[in-house]
């Protein structure tokens, strides 16, 4: 039944030439293609963050708040934009949906509708030139190069977002995106620290700007690092990879090989011991009755892919091994012939009706010269398989190297 | 060609009932069977060592000497008795052979001839009742229980030691074993510390007795622990196992699954990163010109076993997976039939000439309801394989769960 399961050979994956081979642009063409809004946001925030770190000292309370708000807005993206809205891997009650949309906006990565549209196209056209952040265009491009250039809508793959268009809160966030993003990106974190413990500057520079820069790059790693480093336990036809390092940097989105195979599973880390705080958050909210209908692929389906990959690895390893001359292609040797050759001093031995020439091996025989000599000129199958010694699997493999002929006994011959 | 390689099914492995099921002995019978020399050595030395540790303080120099002499005598066993004499895995110049016999004797584990005879029987009859320290008789027995009882020569398997009988230094050590063992076990370590830095008591208790106890149990672990904990990367028909923990405790003899498959390989740790100081010592001596003809099994032979084990694991995993109804056992469905059923509202879809009933899956389809509906009542093979979306390997696996019939098109039908 296994052979009924072909390893998918997707036909919509196109060859994308490496960046260096693509037609070059003039400087002015290049400048025209830059998305100045994105580029200035992405390039100035790190500078402001460094300036803040040098001029404002970090208090303990602000540190904790920055850390918390880093997770709140980061998971706004991973738990909200990604697992809930792009992949509908679970269902959420209204308050949670609104909170995820608000804090997700605080990560300043575009509206949920826009983000999910691109993300679905990324899944549908992974690694092709219709993928908005194809890993085949390089690490830098998939990380945030793609954000700093204008998108060519005619090139990017289409994806279906009917469900999001029909969701009034998603549309509300989309229409009012700029003020919401500005408020939750900068104002809210500053207000909390300012009203809370009178650290307005710390709130702005640390919980606001520095936190924003780290959330940006954490989540960008899902598109870059997660397609570059790690293992491919479920499928190695495409670039997504599983890596604990990426997982730690991305609130648990580092099991990306799993995720591209099972995108509507609310988990990214399939293993209980994998680092996936986004999964834990969803599970916790389920226990609190805030979300429901968590979607998982069955163990059976998940293991299928894992087993096929292992099988594939074993098959590949088998190719590089020399298994000895195939039995079918060995010449025949009659009993008379065998006896005559042995009399002339040939060091032949028969195991499993195959004539082995052990000349070179006698002195190396791990069981000693005298034992192997007992078998010379004879059918030593029984000695070899237990009468004298039940040889290891390794020894059973080794004999194939000495094959020279198929033995034809007198009985058979007549 | 792989199928020509049968996994060995050794025929000389006999069933050994667990100790608890064997016929019980009376106390006086039991006492008669005790090997009092061994038992008193093995049971009193730890007591003496503890007494010494409580009454004599350990100096820094004696500590270093104890550590060194622990390795010298321990490796006298592993590098000498075991890898050189029992398995002839390399050749050594006379000075090295003599040193190994002397320091090996300092581990007080019997003469090299006696030790190797039992060890070869252990390899030949692993896990059977002819194995002098069969792991099937339990951890305690294989560790040192077997040493504390009289050996029944009629029961222990025979092994060939012609080569050792012909080696005059091995025979010299065998004949003069008791004085040599006493000298190198207790006198020599005491003399070094006494004459060297005037610590006679420390030399005796630490480098002598405590060192002896630790060397004993380190090397005994090769027969016990190495048959109980770890992995079986090369063969799982027998008890030997690979474990880094055992390796650390036994001067590198912890890769015991490898060792039982490739006993005449001078290495136990096949991997460069494995912990095997005995291997390193042999390699170092080779560089110094003191030993030569280091024997190894080829990478090809070693990988064969490894690949077969992985293959076996994959096959076992495959057994527990549900791969969907076998195509051969599906009923046939004609095109007319298919069309009629679809008209009545059945949610059928054709992929690879198989009719799938996706009723339960439509709402769960990760690509959205509208896409999968495009395929209903049609042959969706091309849509599924790339025209609309090149589905993952996971999706290709999943469809087998929905199989209900083999599709017979009109063309074929006529
Ligand atoms: C082409 C023929 C042979 C090959 C390739 C071969 C290979 C080996 C190998 C690799 C071992 C190491 C232990 C193991 O892997 O199980 C071994 C051990 C042994 N062999 Fe053979 N052998 C051959 C023929 C024979 C014959 C014909 C006999 C007996 C009549 C024999 C008797 C033994 C014994 C007794 C041992 C165990 C020695 C020990 O572990 O101390 N072998 N042989
Ligand atoms: C029994 C039939 C089908 C099954 C089991 C199935 C299963 C899946 C699965 C598991 C995915 C997740 C991504 C992946 O694994 O590659 C997926 C995505 C998708 N499917 Fe299907 N599918 C089926 C039929 C169809 C059909 C007929 C179409 C189109 C006409 C379609 C269009 C899509 C699209 C466009 C996606 C990508 C959505 C995204 O990743 O955002 N599927 N499908
Ligand atoms: Fe991805
Ligand atoms: Fe995703
Ligand atoms: Fe062993
Ligand atoms: Fe051994």
Describe the structure in your own words:
With 414 residues, chain A is mostly helical. The first copy, chain A, is built from 19 helices and six strands. In chain A, strands 3-6-5-4 form a four-stranded mixed β-sheet. In chain A, helix 2 packs across helix 10 and helix 3 packs antiparallel against helix 9 (177-197). One protoporphyrin IX containing FE sits between chains B (349, 356, 358, 365-367, 371-372, 374-375, 380, 383-384, 388-389, 391-392, 394-395, 398-399, 402) and A (120, 123-124, 159, 261, 263). One protoporphyrin IX containing FE sits between chains A (349, 356, 358, 365-367, 371-372, 374-375, 380, 383-384, 388-389, 391-392, 394-395, 398-399, 402) and B (120, 123-124, 159, 261, 263).
> How is the biggest beta sheet of chain A arranged?
4 strands, mixed
The separation of the N and C termini of chain A measures 43 Å
| Low-pLDDT ranges of chain A | 1-15
The residue fraction in helices of chain A comes out at 40-55%
What is Rg of chain A? 32 Å
> Going across the major beta sheet of chain A, what is the strand order?
3-6-5-4
Ligand set: protoporphyrin IX containing FE, fe (ii) ion
What would you call the quaternary organization? homodimer
Mean pLDDT of chain A: 91
Measured by DSSP, the beta-strand proportion of chain A falls in: 5-15%
Q: Tell me the number of helical segments of chain A per DSSP (H or I, 4 or more residues long).
A: 19
- General shape of chain A: elongated
Number of strands of chain A: 6
The largest interface is: A-B, 68 and 68 residues
SSE order of chain A, as H and E? HHHEHHHHHHHHHHEHEHEEHHHEH
Alpha-beta classification of chain A: mainly alpha
């Amino acid at each position: 039944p296994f052979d009924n399961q072909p390893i998918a050979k997707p036909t919509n994956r196109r060859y994308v030439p490496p960046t260096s081979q693509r037609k070059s642009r003039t400087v002015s063409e290049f400048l025209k293609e830059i998305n100045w809004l994105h580029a200035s946001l992405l390039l100035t925030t790190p500078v402001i963050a460094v300036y803040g770190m040098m001029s404002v000292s970090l208090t303990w309370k602000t540190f904790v708040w920055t850390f918390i708000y880093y997770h709140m807005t980061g998971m706004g993206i991973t738990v909200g934009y990604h697992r809930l809205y792009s992949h509908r891997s679970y269902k959420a009650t209204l308050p949670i949906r609104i909170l995820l949309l608000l804090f997700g906006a605080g990560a300043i990565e575009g509206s949920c509708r826009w983000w999910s549209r691109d993300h679905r196209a990324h899944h549908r056209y992974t690694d092709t030139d219709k993928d908005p952040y194809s890993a085949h265009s390089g690490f830098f491009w998939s990380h945030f190069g793609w954000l700093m250039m204008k998108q060519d809508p005619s090139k990017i793959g289409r994806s279906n977002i009917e469900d999001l268009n029909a969701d009034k809160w998603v549309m509300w966030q989309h229409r009012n995106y700029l003020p919401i993003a500005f408020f939750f990106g900068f104002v809210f974190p500053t207000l909390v620290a300012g009203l809370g413990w009178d650290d307005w500057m710390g709130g702005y520079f640390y919980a606001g700007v520095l936190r924003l820069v780290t959330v940006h790059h954490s989540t960008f790693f899902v598109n870059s690092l997660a397609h570059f480093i790690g293992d491919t336990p479920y499928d190695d036809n495409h670039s997504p990879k599983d890596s604990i390092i990426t997982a730690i940097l991305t609130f648990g989105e580092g099991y990306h090989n799993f995720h591209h195979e099972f995108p509507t599973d609310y988990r990214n880390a399939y293993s209980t011991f994998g680092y996936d705080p986004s999964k834990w958050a969803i599970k916790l909210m389920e226990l609190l009755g805030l979300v429901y209908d968590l979607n998982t692929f069955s163990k059976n389906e998940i293991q299928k892919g894992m087993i096929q990959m292992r099988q594939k690895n074993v098959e590949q390893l088998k190719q590089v091994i020399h298994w000895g001359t195939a039995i079918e292609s060995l010449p025949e040797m009659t009993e008379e012939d065998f006896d005559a050759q042995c009399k002339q001093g040939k060091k032949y031995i028969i195991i499993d009706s195959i004539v082995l020439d052990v000349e070179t091996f006698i002195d190396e025989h791990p069981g000693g010269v005298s034992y192997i000599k007992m078998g010379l000129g004879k059918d030593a199958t029984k000695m070899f398989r237990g009468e004298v010694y039940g040889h290891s699997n390794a020894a059973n493999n080794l004999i194939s190297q000495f094959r020279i002929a198929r033995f034809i006994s007198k009985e058979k011959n007549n």
